[in-house]
Structure formats: C-alpha cells, structure tokens
C-alpha cells in the first residue's frame, strides 16, 4: 500500500557510513528516515545525540523522524529541533509531564510524536490528541533492533485508530516489522512503519541492491 510510509531505522545500518546508507534507502523508496536516540537510562542501550543528527541531516531528502528513548527529554528538545528533526517523538513513560514535552516540541517547530511502550495502555493518549501529529506504538520493548514483534499490540493499534478517527495523526509502528507483521498492523490502522533489520538485511553500503526489494516486500 503506497499510502503507508516506510521509515527505515538507521539503527540497523552501518554506523560508519550513515550518509551513504540513508542515500541508498531513499533511492530505493524510503519515505522517512527513522533515527533511534538512546541514553542508557530510559533504555539499556546507547546510540547517538543531536550532533550526529545534525551531521546526517544534509543526507536526508525526505523526513528526519527522531525517536527519543531518553529521560529526561525536555532539556534536549531544542537541540534536536536545531539539528533538523522534522518529527520528534517522546515516550509517555519518560517523565511526569508529557503534555509539557509535546508543547515544547511543537514550540520548537517540529511535529510532535508520542510513543507508547508495549505495557502502556492506549488510553493515555486520550487528552493528548490535540497535541500530537504522530502516535508511535512500540511493538517491541525499546532498546534494540532485531527483536520479535509483540502480537498483543495489534489490538492496541485498532483501538488507537478508533480513537483518532479522521484526525491528521499518523499511527507509526516500531519494532519487529517485516513482510509477515506489516499487513497485520496496516489492517489495524497503522500508516507508518519503522523497519530496521527487515530493510537492511542482506545488503551493505557497497551492495545496497537488497534494500529496495526489502522495502517493497514490507
Ligand atoms: C527499538 C527501536 C526501533 C528498532 C527497530 O528500540 O526503536 O526503531 O530500530 O528495529 P527492528 O525493525 O529490527 O525491530
Ligand atoms: Zn525507533
């Protein structure tokens, strides 16, 4: 379905060659570039920060979709906005003031995303629907690529689609998306799919040919 955005996660790309990896997946039809920021505190892994986002920004012609798996969030919002993030997504579990965080993201000029861990009920979005441009349903526990899709989240996506109705809010799925699981979440109402291992598997910066087939298979 061409109306569904595909957002390759560079967490599964070659860390020494992000610029070329991004150009390769965009040439093969990627709609957004998903950037996983981890702090070793909110999640048990470390990746990169705003300086790296700024460095890759010139290589992104589409949309820089920044997923913040960090706590606290608010002190870093301006830095990620200044680095060129189009979408900044924060976790509802990252602190007591998600409403303030979403306000700050929009205030910094970015689109505001709200991410929900697998154990978090969908009802938390109830009083935030006028504050968000995207809701990210995590279909793995955040922290690592290549994990198994958690099937109980499909029902959460269905409930979220009913709550959102026709509002212009993306439902993004993150974790374990592949050609088997993608149709399940799209049928439930998702319209943006993050995919790391499913996009980058079988290829490399020097052999990016598989990326296109992988994207089209999702
Ligand atoms: C997980 C990250 C995901 C991850 C997805 O914490 O938020 O974006 O890169 O990787 P795959 O598609 O391999 O599950
Ligand atoms: Zn992510």
TrEMBL record:
GO terms for biological process: pentose catabolic process; pentose-phosphate shunt. InterPro entries: Aldolase_TIM (IPR013785), Ribul_P_3_epim (IPR026019), Ribul_P_3_epim-like (IPR000056), RibuloseP-bd_barrel (IPR011060). PANTHER family: RIBULOSE-5-PHOSPHATE-3-EPIMERASE. Substrate binds at residues 9, 67, 143-146, 174-176, 196-197. One of its GO terms (cellular component) is cytoplasm. It catalyses: D-ribulose 5-phosphate = D-xylulose 5-phosphate. Its EC number is 5.1.3.1. Catalyzes the reversible epimerization of D-ribulose 5-phosphate to D-xylulose 5-phosphate. Belongs to the ribulose-phosphate 3-epimerase family. Binds 1 divalent metal cation per subunit. One of its GO terms (molecular function) is D-ribulose-phosphate 3-epimerase activity. The active site is at residues 36, 174. A divalent metal cation binds at residues 34, 36, 67, 174. Pathway: Carbohydrate degradation. It is an enzyme of class 5 (isomerase). Keywords: Carbohydrate metabolism, Cobalt, Isomerase, Manganese, Metal-binding, Zinc. Its cofactor is a divalent metal cation; Mn(2+); Zn(2+); Fe(2+). HAMAP family: RPE. It comes from Celeribacter baekdonensis B30. The keyword Zinc applies. This is Ribulose-phosphate 3-epimerase. It comes from the Bacteria.
């Amino acid at each position: 379905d061409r109306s569904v955005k595909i957002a390759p996660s560079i967490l599964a790309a070659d860390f020494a060659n992000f610029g070329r990896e991004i150009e390769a997946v965009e040439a093969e039809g990627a709609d957004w570039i998903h950037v996983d920021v981890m702090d070793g505190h909110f999640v048990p892994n470390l990746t990169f920060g705003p300086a790296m986002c700024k460095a890759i920004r010139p290589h992104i012609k589409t949309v820089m979709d920044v997923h913040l798996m960090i706590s606290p969030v608010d002190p870093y919002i301006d830095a990620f906005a200044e680095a060129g993030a189009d979408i900044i997504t924060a976790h509802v579990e990252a602190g007591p003031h998600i409403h303030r965080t979403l306000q700050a993201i929009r205030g910094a000029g970015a689109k505001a995303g709200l991410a929900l861990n697998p154990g978090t009920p969908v009802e938390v979005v109830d009083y935030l629907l006028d504050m968000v441009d995207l809701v990210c349903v995590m279909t793995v526990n955040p922290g690592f690529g290549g994990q198994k899709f958690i099937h109980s989240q499909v029902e959460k996506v269905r409930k979220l689609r009913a709550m959102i109705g026709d509002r212009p809010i993306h439902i993004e799925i993150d974790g374990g998306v592949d050609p088997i699981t993608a149709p399940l979440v799209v049928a439930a109402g998702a319209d943006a799919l993050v995919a790391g291992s499913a996009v980058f598997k079988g290829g490399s910066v020097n052999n990016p040919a598989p990326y296109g087939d992988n994207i089209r298979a999702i």
